[in-house]
Design brief:
It is built from 13 helices and 12 strands. The chain has a 6-stranded parallel sheet, sandwiched between helices. A 6-stranded antiparallel sheet has the order 2-7-6-5-4-3. The radius of gyration is 27 Å and the shape is elongated.
Length: 317
């Protein structure tokens, strides 16, 4: 619609979620680290049990890895999802905590033996508030992402990435894609506050995301863009624009089309009002005849329509 086109044309910064937008969202378990005598199989099996009811890409990758190793995944008797932190579950009378560092800190788990190894997203596991191990999961960059970011920068737009992942893995992905600014370890509500800060500093903001946690940010952004094929229904419903093929290279094209369209609209307004004003003045002095009046009415409308048809050629480029 017209409101979305105007908002797109005025955007100063493009803020993107990492998973599913800059990266493919296809996570793979890279390493399983253990502690206090727990085996890799036990840690992976318990983590998979916690994540068995989740549709998050990281959760799916852990469950898939456990199944590929033919591990037993015993469904917990109780599962509680803690937004932005992870899962608390009860299995065979034991309390399992599966999530990020913030989840462990919230339940006073001793992480003195925990040590970060390598890049990627970390999923920590604790059994009865005792740290048991960590699963490192990594995502892969979309092949078109660096070119898409370069095109966005070519439109004189600032690029920012927001993610709930660890800072190290976020910075690694940002460096490969060419994103200028990174904010990591963010909860859904943190993304909203960061978006507001970016708006205050840089001006009108576009947000691009695909997850259910991105829906509030998509709504609050000046223009929200959702990924159509892999995006959640909530994100698609909240967005102003939906990319049905998830091609991030089209973000720069959208801004280009919007800016050119708005420019053509301004041309038509100035031309139409200018010609009518001139003919009115000439008519007041008895200089303009009927044919000039016809041109000021019908002729100007036809020229404005022909000028507007130039937007069709912009969309094809």
């Amino acid at each position: 619609g017209g409101v979305s086109l105007e908002s797109l044309a005025e955007v100063k910064a493009v803020v993107m979620d990492k998973t599913g937008t800059i990266t493919k969202g296809n996570f793979d378990v890279q390493k399983v680290l253990t502690q206090d005598g727990w085996s890799e199989e036990a840690v992976l099996s318990m983590a998979a049990a916690c994540e068995s009811s989740s549709t998050h890409p990281i959760a799916v990758s852990i469950v898939t890895a456990a199944k590929n190793k033919n591990l037993s995944i015993e469904k917990p008797s109780e599962i509680e999802e803690i937004s932005g932190k992870g899962i608390r579950a009860i299995q065979n009378g034991r309390q399992l905590l599966c999530g990020n560092v913030k989840l462990m800190q919230a339940f006073d788990v001793d992480l003195s033996s925990y040590q970060k190894e390598g890049s990627g997203s970390e999923v920590l596991l604790a059994v009865d508030k005792n740290y048991a191990g960590c699963i490192i999961v990594s995502d892969t960059l979309k092949e078109e992402a660096p070119k898409a970011i370069a095109r966005i920068k070519g439109q004189n737009l600032k690029t920012v990435m927001l993610t709930g992942d660890a800072l190290e893995s976020a910075e690694e992905i940002a460096a490969l894609a060419g994103v200028e600014e990174v904010h990591a370890r963010l909860l859904p509500e943190d993304k909203l506050s960061e978006l507001q800060k970016i708006r205050e500093k840089d001006g009108s903001v576009m947000f691009v995301g695909d997850g259910i946690n991105d829906a509030p940010v998509l709504t609050r952004a000046d223009i929200g863009i959702a990924m159509g094929s892999m995006g959640s229904d909530a994100a698609i419903e909240a967005a102003d624009v939906v990319l049905m093929d998830d091609d991030v290279r089209k973000i720069a094209s959208l801004v280009k089309i919007a800016r050119k369209t708005l420019s053509i609209v301004h041309q038509n307004i100035v031309f139409a009002l200018g010609v009518k004003a001139i003919v009115l003045i000439l008519g007041a002095f008895g200089i303009a005849n009927m044919w000039e009046a016809v041109f000021a009415d019908v002729g100007v409308s036809v020229i404005a329509i022909l000028n507007s048809m130039r937007t069709l050629h912009i969309a094809k480029k």
